[in-house]
Amino acid sequence: MWRTELGERILEGAEAMVFAETLSSLLDEAILGQLDDYKLGVACFDSLTVGQRISALATIGNGLLREDVPPVDLTAVVEGAIAAVFQHLKNQIIFEIDMPECGTSWREMVIAARNEAEGENIPVPNCTDVEEWDFQVEQLADRILWDADYEDGHLYLDQPPEKSEWLKYMTRIQEDYFVAIADDLADEEAQVRIKELKRLCESKLESS
Description:
Blueprint (H helix, E strand, L loop, with lengths): L1 E3 L2 E3 L3 H19 L11 H4 L3 H16 L10 H23 L6 H12 L13 H12 L11 H5 L3 H11 L15 H21 L1
Antiparallel strand pairs: 1-2
Helix pairs in contact: 1-3, 1-4, 1-5, 1-9, 3-4, 3-9, 4-6, 5-6
């Protein structure tokens, strides 16, 4: 389960499908040994080791796709991992636009999820406006993420302790939000988690 502005929930239907497909695609980067060099522009995710990235992805995958998992504590690491998945989705759409022979499957999944959420002004699948698709993906991310606090670690961690505490109090940020870390999985354990996550994603795609 996951705490969102829409309440405690898991992803279902088209929303689950696009997230599971994107997470599975991101895990393929790890399988190919390319995850370490894949920068997604989310500092709190990009700075992690590969083992930590897999750990964070396992946390969000299980939290967002499994109903039997208790609500996950929100930290910069796990929210940054969600943002990273959606950035990967944006990258896949850009690749799809740049390579028309690849079709429009990523854009079609986003459209389905946006329609399911009763979104407005949704583009057609062959739209090639990257900024428009960025907006559509951000609308999906906003259904999960409360805000972009995960980007603001430097505003808190670079301050004297008393000022940092005051800022967190004023913005209602949990004490350990920026300092909680992901487990740094050893290679063998990371591979086990990847396989488990891939199976979870496949099961969601088959049932959606």
